[in-house]
Specification:
Blueprint lengths: L1 E3 L4 E3 L5 E8 L6 E9 L11 E2 L11 E9 L2 E8 L10 E9 L10 E6 L4 E6 L8 E10 L2 E11 L2 H8 L2 E4 L12 E4 L52 E6 L2 E5 L4 E9 L5 E6 L5 E8 L4 E9 L5 E6 L3 E7 L5 E3 L4 E5 L2 E5 L4 E7 L7 E7 L11 E7 L2 E7 L4 E5 L5 E8 L13 E5 L2 E6 L7 E9 L6 E5 L5 E7 L6 E6 L6 E7 L1 E10 L10 E4 L2 E5 L4 E7 L7 E8 L4 E6 L7 E5 L6 E8 L4 E7 L6 E2 L5 E5 L2 E5 L4 E8 L8 E5 L5 E6 L3 E5 L2 E6 L3 E6 L2
Parallel strand pairs: 1-10, 23-25, 48-50
Antiparallel strand pairs: 2-12, 3-7, 3-9, 4-5, 4-8, 6-7, 8-11, 9-10, 11-12, 13-14, 15-22, 16-21, 17-20, 17-22, 18-19, 18-21, 24-31, 25-30, 26-29, 26-31, 27-28, 27-30, 32-39, 33-38, 34-37, 34-39, 35-36, 35-38, 40-47, 41-46, 42-45, 42-47, 43-44, 43-46, 49-56, 50-55, 51-54, 51-56, 52-53, 52-55
Length: 707
């Protein structure tokens, strides 16, 4: 990014650019309207259409466009879009100006201009530090030099407002017959006629009063003409000059506009709940357009102008407000790789191929709802026919599938700061391993991971975002592409954690990822897994190493989180896995056998949700309760290990658990604490051998020797 000062200049990228005229979002301070003037070699406009501003948002050449207002990170920014390579050859300079509404530029906090390339890179940043009594400002200009375009920071102010600035560039300002509140409605005409051989564009006239409601009707739609003078329209409906109405308190307003979808922009800097509804033919609320307690507030939402009547809006707010109705061409563009930021509702336009939409939301002040929808152009007249991309409460950091454009993306909720970025769908090549053993992707896919040390297990760190409320799944595939068992689940193992892969020493392993957003897998040496020598605590899923003889392991919760919590033992080189312990929502510890194969190492896989805290600790075998001799009965709760010291005999297994009283299992363990036989799977009498036994239950259980 190049910071420049007044009078300095800098080169700009050759492609399309976005220009932000920004200021700090401080309540009670003046607002700023941005405009662009296209000037010929004499330094003057060639005709009316060479002034692009909020009431005339599109230049006939299509090279300059007013893209509306955005808000993010405590800033307001009014955006202009410039396609400099397609600016007509007779245009030598494009001036970026601003006019101040309700005060002077000296009262505008943090005034700046930024030139942003379409990849999101900030090319030029100019801060205005010397504004005082001016009501209009030439902030900067783009000019041709040696076949390329450059930008110069001008910083020239006008006390005579937009009218005085416009006059300097050959525009005669026509005063409107009916005032429109704080928004200046300017008709423009060239002092000298347009160049020979061109058709002059019509001069916009002042708005007429509405006989039915007293509200001003929309200004006449300017004819946007191409090179041959023919009328053109936007891709999804006719263009029209934005219509603005200001007021205070609860009001009903109406406007006559071309039928079809439009953008309704609401703005205020007061306190309280701000609500705007569209009204049906009987003047009853039809669709909620704005509903926010943010202050100051600037939001944009979709609405539909009926075929047979005016667009009617009901505004409910105690203070002063401003409503602007804009054509769909005013939707903020969403470009590949560019991060769009905002606060509150917004309307974006996506024209690219199918992509991944990465979304971030700070949760608002009180874990607000973050809702994002996509609308296909041919279904915009029925706004309920939308595709829900995000519908989350609180903080959001996930990815959703974005359909092929053109589509309109609407942020309909989110009283907090949000960011959206469209990212290309990656094409994965599973034939070769990345040099850093990091595999990245988005959405559902099949990926083959290559063992960096064949013959040895590897530690796999995963970060897999859930694409929906069902949670992601990762399935192992065999060499024929058939399912070899579910390996990870977004509910049980969470979105982030670690696990073991290649436990049988394989050279590669194929994974099928489903219902996932953005994901990242990283292979590390197994030695980087934490060593379990005593008590260890953690949160979420994790892989631990254990070196020692077979023993017992206690597992307990350290948080109130009610998510899944279990522990498994797995071994190399056998690759066998067995359940150590599983817990319910209680924090009482449970005990299970830590199986260690004679010829291999042992790993402990703790499975837990992202916010579930846990504690594990190896304990000696002699802490297992004994049954035999004089001890005829042992009891416990949940998972446990019992040592039977007597000969094989019949025992009674009981289980007190209201929801599933019969859900109780009894296993015989070998000398390495591996479950070699399933003795029983229900309450009742069972033949029990001597040695270690594992009980798998959730309620209170008892094991009693009979006779």
């Amino acid at each position: 990014m190049t910071h420049i000062t007044k009078g300095a200049n800098a080169p700009v990228p050759a492609g399309p650019l976005r220009v932000a005229v920004g200021r700090a979002a401080v309540p009670g301070t003046p607002s700023v309207d941005a405009s662009a003037l296209l000037l010929d070699a004499t330094g003057r406009v060639r005709g009316d259409a060479d002034l692009v501003f909020h009431n005339q948002p599109l230049h006939p050449s299509g090279a300059v466009r007013h893209a509306g207002v955005g808000r993010a990170d405590g800033q307001f920014a009014e955006w202009l879009e410039l396609d400099l390579p397609n600016v007509e050859a007779s245009v030598q300079r494009v001036v970026i100006a601003g006019s101040c509404d309700g005060g002077t530029f000296g009262q505008v906090p943090g005034l700046y201009l930024q030139v942003v390339a379409y990849d999101g890179t900030i090319a030029v940043h100019y801060e205005v530090a010397d504004a005082s009594t001016e009501t209009a400002f030439v902030l900067g200009e783009f000019y041709r030099r040696d076949g390329a375009w450059r930008f110069r920071a001008v910083g020239q102010g006008y006390d005579s407002g937009l009218a005085g600035l416009a006059t300097d560039f050959g525009i005669e300002v026509a005063q409107p017959a009916v005032p429109r509140g704080p928004v200046v409605n300017t008709g423009v005409s060239k002092v000298a006629g347009p160049p020979a051989g061109t058709t002059p564009a019509p001069t916009p006239s002042a708005p007429a009063a509405s006989a039915s409601s007293g509200a001003p009707a929309a200004p006449p739609v300017p004819a946007v003409r191409g090179a041959n003078g023919s009328k053109s329209a936007g891709p999804f409906g006719p263009e029209f000059r934005p219509w603005t109405r200001s007021g205070r308190g609860d009001r009903e307003i109406s406007v006559k506009l071309p039928a079809g979808p439009v953008i309704v922009e609401g703005e205020h800097d007061g306190e309280g709940l701000f609500c705007v509804d569209t009204l049906d033919a009987e003047k009853k609320p039809d669709r909620l357009v704005h509903n926010s307690a943010l202050s100051p507030y600037l939001g944009r939402s979709l609405a539909v102008v009926p075929e047979d009547r005016r667009l009617r809006l009901r505004v409910q707010f105690e203070g002063a407000w401003k409503i602007t109705v804009r054509p769909l061409s005013a939707a903020r563009p969403l470009a590949t790789g560019e991060e769009v930021r905002g606060t509150g509702p917004e309307v974006l336009r996506w024209d690219g191929p199918a992509a991944d939409l990465e979304g971030w939301f700070d949760g608002g002040r009180n874990s607000e709802l973050f809702c994002v929808e996509s609308h296909e152009p041919d279904r915009l007249t029925a706004l309920h026919n939308s595709r829900l991309l995000f519908n989350e409460i609180g903080r959001v950091d996930k990815t959703a599938p974005l359909p092929r454009g053109p589509v309109f993306v609407a942020v309909t909720n989110g009283e907090g700061d949000w960011r959206l970025r469209a990212a290309p769908i990656p094409v994965l090549d599973g034939s070769a391993a990345p040099a850093d053993s990091v595999y990245k992707g988005r959405r559902d896919t099949t990926v083959t991971l290559v063992n960096p040390r064949p013959g040895h297990p590897a530690l796999l760190e995963y970060d897999i975002r859930n694409a929906d409320d069902q949670g992601h799944t990762v399935t192992l595939l065999d060499e024929y592409g058939d399912c070899d068992g579910e390996w990870l689940n977004g509910f049980r193992q969470g979105e982030r954690g670690s696990d073991a892969l290649f436990t049988t020493g394989r050279q590669q392993r194929t994974l099928q990822i489903r219902r996932a957003g953005k994901w990242r897998l990283r292979l590390l040496p197994i030695e980087e897994a934490p060593l379990l020598k005593g008590p260890l605590e953690g949160t979420g899923s994790a892989l631990l190493r254990y070196q020692g003889p077979p023993t017992l392991l206690t597992l307990s919760r350290t948080t109130e989180e009610a998510g899944h919590l279990a522990a498994h033992a797995l071994n190399h080189p056998r690759g066998q896995r067995t359940l150590i312990a599983d817990t319910d929502t209680r924090r009482r510890p449970v005990v299970g056998p830590l199986w260690v194969a004679p010829e291999g190492s042992c790993f402990v896989r703790v499975q837990a949700g992202d916010k579930v805290g846990w504690r594990v600790e190896p304990v000696p075998l002699d802490e297992a309760p004994e049954i035999g001799g004089r001890t005829k009965r042992v009891t416990g709760r949940g998972f446990g290990v019992v040592r039977h010291t007597g000969p094989e005999t019949e025992m009674l297994l009981t289980h007190d658990y209201d929801m599933l009283p019969d859900l109780i299992h009894l296993f015989e363990l070998d000398e390495n604490l591996f479950p070699v036989r399933h003795i029983g799977r229900s309450r009742g009498a069972h033949r029990v051998p001597s040695g270690f036994l594992q009980v798998r239950g959730f309620g209170e259980w008892g094991l009693e020797r009979r006779g």
